Amino acid sequence: MSDSTSKDWKPRTHAVHGGTRRSQYGEVSEAIFLTQGFVYDSAEAAAQRFQAAGEDEFIYARYGNPTVRMFEERIALLEGAEDGFATASGMAAVSGALSAMLKAGDRVVSARALFGSCLYVLEEILTRYGVEVEFVDGTDLEAWEAAITPDTTAVFFESISNPTLEVVDIAAVSKLAHAVGATVLVDNVFATPAFSNAIAQGADVVIYSATKHIDGQGRALGGIILGTRDFIRKTVEPYMKHTGGSMSPFTAWVMLKGLETLDLRVRVQAGSALALAEALTGHTALSRVIFPGHSSHAQHALVQTQMGGKGGTVLSLDLKGGQEAAFRFLNALTIPVISNNLGDAKSILTHPATTTHQRLPQDQKDILGITPGLVRMSVGIEDPDDLIADVLQALEKAG
Question: Domain-by-domain residue ranges, the chain?
Fold first, then answer.
């Protein structure tokens, strides 16, 4: 197999061609190697490969696969990382990255505003095995500075929180963490690979749920852990290949196809999200419109430097009438669908308080700003004028 990748290419070119391996047949679309294992020419060759596999040598699909490797190399090039390990889901990436590096007695400082499953991993699983976890307000640098002590092993946060869209200063928090030798892990899903190069801003490990923008069409679950070659191959790979959270070859092929159009899709989605935020700000049915790319957002200035002014593809709306108004609004929409995914070509709306974050106690929902009237909207690639018109008519019906 041959790989003609150039590291000098720009991101959009990497997203289409990076890491491509062509077989002797010269296929245009990447090949799917649907195989669990691989054949060796001799017993000696098998023994040698198990001792030290070469760059294009594979042992077992749980350890690695040519199609999966293409996806890992392509997204690593796009993100500016040395290497990556593809996982079965976004949460397999989050739990795998943390569990692979942590042991009893280690200490993690995390932003409080997280996706419900991320909170479960930190609060319920890691602490069960003796890892100390402290939560802080992710937007408060003084809180980070006070919590990140010399005994801190790792720092974890979502660069844009789910669902209230708080933006964490990657460079500032990374500087505080590195001063005490802590590893910085960033869940960068809402920022997307197109808008935020978290590694260049100081993150050591970047995690994506490929289920979201990378696939972009609601077809498959997947995730990726990105970092230095040593971290990926010496820390993550041994853990993942023995615990079984690796990505399937078919899923990797789906994600490769998604990467080809990622930049085009998310730029359209971000533009439509901003148009919606501008059209809805001040609406009498809403107590607030949250969108990082809008000038009213508390971290709008940070978004300009950290994301090049692009606020992502998700906005949140808080309806004054609480859950009843939110449900009437959701049920009155004709274009977006009600689901719990995001980053899709279709616009998707979610009621976090009763779905993705329903397990949180009310006091935590209150702290995070997850009100009964809050609705998260992942903006798709539909015509923005159609979306605005549909949202406005649904708000009118919601009262």
Answer: 10-258, 263-398
CATH classification for the domain delimited by 263-398, as one of 3.30.390.10, 3.90.1150.10, 3.30.1360.30, 3.30.1440.10: 3.90.1150.10
Instruction: For residue 238, give every residue at least 6 positions away whose Cβ sits within 8 Å of its Cβ, in sequence order, or none.
Output: 100
pLDDT the model gives residue 187: 98
Choose among 384, 313, 319, 389: nearest CA to 352. Answer: 319
Contacts of 138 (CB under 8 A, 6+ apart): 111, 112, 113, 144, 157, 158, 161, 166, 168
Does residue 133 contact residue 108 with C-beta atoms inside 8 Å?
Answer: yes
Alpha helices in the chain, H assignment, sequence order: 11-17, 43-51, 66-79, 90-101, 116-120, 127-128, 141-147, 170-179, 192-195, 229-230, 237-243, 249-280, 300-306, 322-332, 362-368, 384-398
Task: Check whether the bond before 163 is cis (ω within 30° of 0).
Answer: yes
Amino acid in the structure at residue 59: I
- pLDDT score, position 364: 86
- Which stretches of the chain drop beneath a pLDDT of 50? none
Residue recorded with tokens 């009118």: 396
Question: Fold for domain 10-258?
Answer: Aspartate Aminotransferase; domain 2 (3.40.640)
How far is residue 167's CA from residue 174's CA, in Å, rounded to a whole number? 14
pLDDT for res 265: 97
Strands 2-3 and 154-158: unpaired
Helix 384-398, helix 249-280: angle, nearest 10: 60
For the record, the structure tokens of 344 come out as 């899709």
